Records
---
Amino acid sequence: MDVSDRYSRQILFTPLGEKGQRRLMASRVVLVGCGALGSVSANILVRAGVGHVRIVDRDVIQWHNLHRQMLFDEDDVRGDLPKAEAAARKLRRINSGVVVEPIVADANPDTIEELTEDAEVIVDATDNFETRFLINDVAVKTARPWIYGACVGSTGMALPILPGRSPCLRCVVSEIPPPELNPTCETAGILGPVVATVAAHQAMEAIKILAGCVEAVDGRLLSFDAWSGRHIMVNVQNAFEQGDCPCCKEGRYEYLQGSAAGRTITLCGRDAVQVYPGRQAAVDLAALAERLEPVASERPRFNPLLLKAHVESYELTVFADGRAIIKGTSRPQEARAVYARYLGG
């Protein structure tokens, strides 16, 4: 198909033009995560003609995904398809001129460099700060642009990061928030339009970079509440220019090296996995119990040392230092996903 036909309405936009379109078609992007944000971003980028889209995701599609994860349908749930594979099948039908590469894998310190090694832009569509800090580390180390995005409830945030020119994520968020201050979609819910707003902003900034229009990138932090109508753009450049970030200023890649990453240990004979968070910090167990109560099958119990809660088919035992035992699985990857969903780390 003639490029000037398929992408004619994009090419008519003068700042992009045919030159920018040709660059898009020769570009490569990696999406880490293909849930809510990732499915919307992938849809936009493939329709825009980005030449090679690699989708990395470790999860399968579930019924509660369908209200906001725009690429999937009921047949995908019934077929127990991994999100990356289901997304790739749809996207190839949308644009056969784009190479869509699904990778069903966990992004962790052992895999992240290989997964992102040829990307010109990395799009963050993850659900936890530990993986975002990991992406931040590899992006800063390799001077590779990436687009941060997050949403929960009715609120969303997004920030394009140009290593060496703008703040990295750790300039803006120095540490992972403790679980009681870090709501997730499983505990606070999420509205579909919020996802679409964040993902569209991420895709727009990625398209600018891939098309060679870096000067058009808006380096401000987008923050909004779709329910109340609040919408602000925050200039965070001073966090880079005046800060002492351990990542982009000191070259310490603690999450990439694994020194700040969480660890898991399968507990023999107990159908349980112990998850160690990447940071040791006191957890407000009372506040965490209150946050988990709406999604727990019974009221969470806690004392000064630990909290116990039953969610889905799992029993969570959370200790005051953030460590948790996830009972109901012997698979470390599944336990990490449960920890991220309910504790946000």
---
Amino acid sequence: MKKRLQDLSIGLLGGGQLGRMLLQEAANLDLKIAVMDPSEDAPCRHLTFEFVHGDFRDFDAVYAFGKDKDIVTIEFEDVNADALEELEKNGVQVFPEPRVLKLIKDKGLQKQFYNKHQIPTAPFVLIKNKEDILNSGMQAPFFQKLRTGGYDGYGVRKITTLENLEHAFDKPSVLEATADIEKEISVIVSRNTQGEIATFPVVEMEFNPESNMVQFLFAPSTLPQEKQDEARNLAVRIIEALKMTGILAVEMFYLKNGEIWVNEMAPRPHNSGHHTIEANFTSQYEQHLRAITGLPPGNTGTIMPSVMVNLLGEKGYTGKPVYHALDEVLKLPGVYIHLYGKSTTKDFRKMGHVTILAPTLQEAKEKGKYILNTLRVKA
């Protein structure tokens, strides 16, 4: 007999801010989600009915956590995919599927996947170590990305000259040609257990130049409609080719010549979709839960133009976070603050985000810039 939705036993690997927002949406559907995280004070700790302190990179810990679950999902790619594969073999539903996770965790395999399925992406070369750079044929400047272990701007180096490779990684990497970028954009797409697919509207991103993390995001995009349609269609082609269940964030480059290249993808709720909690009829978190439990996809339409500002830890401050000018920001209409409950702030750590809704995108952007320059996370 098929289980009642509210009786499903669901496990989540990772207890950070993405898990925290997933749990908040899960409460609306009365879904019970257990969480495992290596940090005893993880943001999810006090929002879940069951918290397991354990290493999601450890095979035995992941298997023990998931073996009695109906469904296991993730909030972070760097988990033990071999254990998830074993759970899947033993009847546990694992989303995203372990085969998808293994592919996406390796940026080299990602690039080969794009080529195989004729998905436009930056020209690249795969190397094993630093010595291979000189024989790669790549013309500087270009980017070096670690094949595994990099995220949020970590694991990426710009190589400006072949004469000085002192700071280059001496590990398996992707060498990627520099793109002539006009804008960085993202599309979040979902696919449920029945194969039904839905895409969210295109968003545009601006990055912190020092940390290389998304700091400022706005939606809807200002790109021509045909280019937005092209980007959404690329996301659909990718998730169909992967045959993946859940949420997939596809980050892309919109080039100055009008081409769109796929940069990277993440098989989980993503920073570029936080605004959907208030700005869209269905949030990316609800959509992920709908997908993995077999519910129909929700309406992804936009309620109102929005801007999302990441709250990053101020450089030079480490310790218990203090949110300066929080009261001033809360006076503004259409402002929604999400603090992640992290006990310690440090340089550029993601401590929260603010979503701003306004009748026009211009008004939302103006408030977003004010918040970016006013609300500070210090110790």
---
Amino acid sequence: MFHRRFLSRSCLFLTACLGLAGAARGAEPFETFLTKHCVSCHGPDKTKGDLRIDKLSRDFKLGGDTHHWAEVMEQVNSGEMPPKKEKRPTQEEIAAFVTSLDARIKEGKAARMRMR
């Protein structure tokens, strides 16, 4: 009986840990990419192109900055950003970022459509 209860609790703990790790990883490509490749030119110290990435809303359900995020995704996906003089992200970093941002935009749009 003790063994079964221990095993059951261990499985629940492991599941919870994996869920938390997955949630942390889910945000990681997005915010890590922004911090590593965008905020130095589009943040509090510099504001190139009148765009402050650090000030854009991360609440995609409201959709207030979706047009800016779509432009960011376009610029990164096309290779225009970050500029060639900056440290270039790997293809894996670009893919993870674009995939994450695209999913956020789509989920936000779907949420707004449900609220209508």
